[in-house]
Amino acid sequence: MDESLSGFYIIELENPVDLNDSHDAIFDNIVQQGKLSYINTALVKEMGLRKLYQKQPQIYLKDLLAQQNKMLLDVDFLPYGLRTTGRHDHCEVNPTFTGIFMHVQHALKYEIVEDKLLRISGVFNSIKVSPKVEIGFKEFLRALPFAIVFRDAASNRFIECNKRFEDLFGYKKNEIMGRHRYFLRREHDEEYTALMERLLQKQIVKKYASVSKYYRKNGSWFYGETYRSKYYIDDKDIIISFVSDVTERELAKKELAKSESVFREIYESNSVGLTQVDFSKVLDEINLLKSKGVKDIRKHVEEFPEDYHKIISGIRMNDINPKMQEMFEGENKEDSIKNIFQVFVHSINTVWKDELHAIFNNMEGFGSQIKIRTFKGNEKYFYYSVIYPEDNDFSNINYTYVDITEQVKAKELLDVKVEELDKQRLELKSYIESNLELEKFAYITSHDLREPLRTIVGFSQILKNKSEDRLNKEEKEYLEYIVSAGKNMNNLIEDILMYSRVKSDDVHFSNVHMKLLLEEIKKDLSESIEENNVLIKIDPHLPNAVFGNHTYLYQLFQNLIKNAIKFKKPIIQPVVEIKYKDRVSHHQFEVKDNGIGIEEEYFDRIFLLFKRLHSSSVYDGTGIGLAVCKKVVNIHKGEIRVESEVGKGTSFIFTLQK
Fold first, then answer.
1. Of 104, 101, 116, 108, which Cα lies nearest the Cα of 16?
2. Are 566 and 531 in contact (CB under 8 A)?
3. Which long-range contacts (CB under 8 A, 24 or more apart) does 337-340 make?
4. Is residue 35 classed as helix, strand or coil in its secondary structure?
């Protein structure tokens, strides 16, 4: 027949214990100052406290630990719910090898005032089970679905195990019993295990867990998680170990650690700026606004800026990679993370409102351009983007940043250039329209002036011939001035007509034979060439033909040769050279003379209409010839320039498109 035992005790606390502290702090406080102010005989006998109780009727809980006796109460005696219920009932099974104790209706009562624990009292009944029941208990242990083994704490040798333990390690019970715990080969943290074993033996800790790589009898291995607890049973310290096969979990952890290591390496060495940001509080605030019926987050934060500031104040920067720190010009990682939001200029508010809109509407991601002022004060532009997590875990989302400062500044410069070109285009359009009007005006005016001018010159010549005998010297000079001025006026009109006739519209292009063209010009200028003893040298490498307008090219070369003859030096024989170079897309010609030359300050002026460098009394002409040359070259999609040195001669170099 089973023998029933009842126990009763009271634990007094010297100072009230604050129940708002952590669970461990409360338990430690109770152990340090709590004392068994009353314990009945049944409990003294059952707990093996007779000798200690005779010497010290009121036993401090810490003294029980020092004596290595079994603690009356485990950590479970202080449940989390005691503040609301004031009591705790539970059952506990303590196995032995001569029987077991089954504590039933273990009732704890707590005296609490204003969350302060003052006293603990407990009552429990214990049932000592017969050997027959003990046999049944051993069978129960062997049938448990997890591996369990018992070892003597003093000798560290195995004294009992169950069937699951045999199956897990591949040893029979008779192969294990009496063996030292090192009989089971394993790879583990020896320093940690040795420390925890010492603490367990001294009951500084009541239990500990570890994960080891265990080897079975056949040489295979598995990862086992072992929980060890120490019990005082039948005057012996027994360590009970529960072993679970956690191979899949540990391998998964290793794979995860490997993946995290690879990710960290990529994260740290990436050439793109990366940040990890905690947006969980932002998401909480957004969900709160949704629950209040907000439909448009952008409109809401505009109307209620205090809500906007509350939302963005919840943003927390978790981490940045080295590239991000470099791009933002931070001194070190910690300060950069702490102060990173200081680099964003006010325009980021607009961007963040757009991003809040993206999160609010469950969009997959977001991207935008932002402007920052780095920690060193330099302005930069970035494009940042983010893909939001599918599981809505916004506690650590990854942002990427790409420095686009050069592209933005290049675009800004391009915009300025486009604006300048557009302005120049309008000016050119106005100039062309004005020039067309001027050409039209010059053509009409020249035609209208020629007839009255012929009349003036003609009648002046008749008057001079008929009245020469009757006019005095002064009157003859006046009449000569009229005739001379009329001729000059006629030459000017002819040149204006020639300039106005040179048009880019409806120009007929064909292959112009260059040698024949120059021979034609030499023939037309033969009188002037002979009169001035001019030597004309023509490059033998001239192209056979140039694609252009025959009339305009004739005017171009004739004007340049006439200029070379006109501005010759008085004593030296005039030499005119016509040179040629073949360019990739153009023909390049040069008309060079050994004349008086041109001062450099006039190089740009000589191609303008009516710009003369010398008086008509020294050199005749109207100042239109070079303007015609430039116009002809432009029509042939080329360029013309002058090179000259005073006293040494002049070269006109021009190109014609092939």
1. 116
2. no
3. 339/375, 340/275
4. strand
Q: Over the stretch 299-357, which tens digit does the pLDDT of each residue have?
A: 998 999 899 888 888 888 888 888 888 888 888 888 888 888 778 765 677 888 889 99
Q: Is 616 helix (H, G, I), strand (E, B) or coil?
A: coil
Whether pLDDT at 486 is above 60: yes
Closest CA to 214 of 273, 261, 168: 168
DSSP assignment string, 137-167: HHHHHHH-SSEEEEEETTTTEEEEE-HHHHH
**Could you give the CA distance from residue 236 to residue 151 in angstroms, rounded to a whole number?**
10
Q: At which residue do the structure tokens 């999609």 appear?
A: 637
Retrieve residue 195's tokens: 């420390």
Task: Give the span between the Cα atoms of 185 and 222, in whole angstroms.
Answer: 11
Neighbours of 219 (CB within 10 A): 8
Q: Which amino acid is at 630?
A: K
146 and 31 in contact (C-beta within 8 Å)? no
**Hey, what are 67's tokens?**
């004596």
pTM score, two decimals?
0.37
Compute the distance between CA of residue 23 and CA of residue 34 in angstroms, rounded to an integer: 16
Alpha carbons 107 and 474: distance in angstroms, whole number: 152
Query: Does residue 573 carry a pLDDT above 50?
Result: yes
Strand 545-548 vs strand 535-538: parallel, antiparallel, or unpaired? unpaired
For Cα atoms 263, 268, 271, give the angle at the middle one, nearest 5 degrees: 105
The residues near 403 (Cβ < 8 Å, ≥ 6 apart) are: 273, 327, 380, 381, 382
- Asked whether 237 and 230 are in contact (CB, 8 A), the reply is yes
Q: For the segment 19-65, what is each residue's pLDDT rounded down to a tens digit?
A: 888 777 787 788 888 888 888 777 676 666 665 666 666 777 777 65
* Coil, strand or helix at 560: helix
CA distances 308 to 286, 287, 338, Å, are: 10, 14, 21
3-state secondary structure 317-384: EEEECHHHHHHCCCCCHHHHHHHHHHHECCCHHHHHHHHHHHHHCCCCEEEEEEEEECCCCCEEEEEE
